[in-house]
Model the fold of this input.
Amino acid sequence: MEVVEKYMQGLYQSGLYPDKFICHQKQGNLVEVEDPGNGKRYKLLTFCTNDVLGLVQSEKVKQAAIDSILQYGTSNSSCSVLSGRIDLHRQLEQEISAFKHLPHTHLFLNAWMAMQALIDGFCHLAINLPGFRNTRETLILTDVLNHGCILSAVTNASNRSGKMFSHSPNVRVKAYRHCDVNDLARKLRRYAQPGDRIMVVSDAVFSMDGDIAPLPEMLDVLESYPGSVIVMDEAHASGAIGAKGGGIYDHFGITPQQVLDRGMVPLIMTTFSKFAASAGAAISSHIPEMIDLLDVSPTSIGTISLPAPTTAAALESIRQVRQYPQIVESLQANASYLRERVIEHDFAAIGETNVIPVLVPPELNPKQFCRHLMEHHGIWVSAIWFIAKPRLRITANALHTKEDMDKLVNAMVETRELLYKPAAATVATA
Done:
């Protein structure tokens, strides 16, 4: 514990430890938060929520959650393969399958568990089945900037439950450069062996850089490896990109069936904490056997099923997205407008989605910048250190008005003028 204490003291002193504010009230993009350090409260306009479609405050979504509690209670108190499966689960699975154009879906409590179950199940199956032995090795290719849930799962892909409790063949994991299809092709040529089960896994929209995976080019590469599996983590893509908010396949005008017709296997992970005003995740596949395998994985059996109110909220949210695509249009219009305004004022915005990271120079402390926005302008933006590139992580949503976004940009300009002292200017003055 001494090591932990010393490390955390260093983290506190460095200023890298994030501020943890307590939310007391929210209405749309207006929130009231408390600084637990001094007890001070702020009424803020938020640009750091992942409620990208603004459905958290939807009356229909809230009522669906309330009704489900009255019918089922607050927890199912069991996993789905025992006594924890309710009709809402079936409805949500069917709704996701229709939304993602893959007929079979399995629910999880969160994306970390979903990805762990997928990698574990695919690489090592579930239990030692009498008379059956899998001898085919697995090669996994992962984008270097994939989300932590993917990195955690693939890093431990060689020593999950199947490996521990029964015979499992080897798993090899290789990273390719971020969104670099040429490097992906090189890695496949170098590491793929005859008989390998090949899986490529990637964020659809990258949560820190806000850019989109080059899915069409990835498929062109994988077509040379028949039967290869491509996994898209659509946490930040669902409800955000595509003409109807369907995610990366919708964005590029591709269907999972077209991928299957070309000899590859699409798997999609959907999460509910961004566009669907809830929590939880799902894996969708074209075959029921994959879903049943996930259902009997240690990750599924070792916990409870998705509680009724979160299931109901996600279900109603997805129904609204499918019924009212104009919500998605509003989000995309706001994201484009805000990105353009930020760039117009010479901020280093990157990405191409509603996630708008703004890189800041090393002389500028992003936490100090965000504190000034909060205390002097009533605006809440997240400060992030990601792979040594400090940034402001701004997220646009469907509820922002042009007045809201203009207020943010004007406040950013004022804060920069006040706080930013370029190193070159400092040296020249000295």
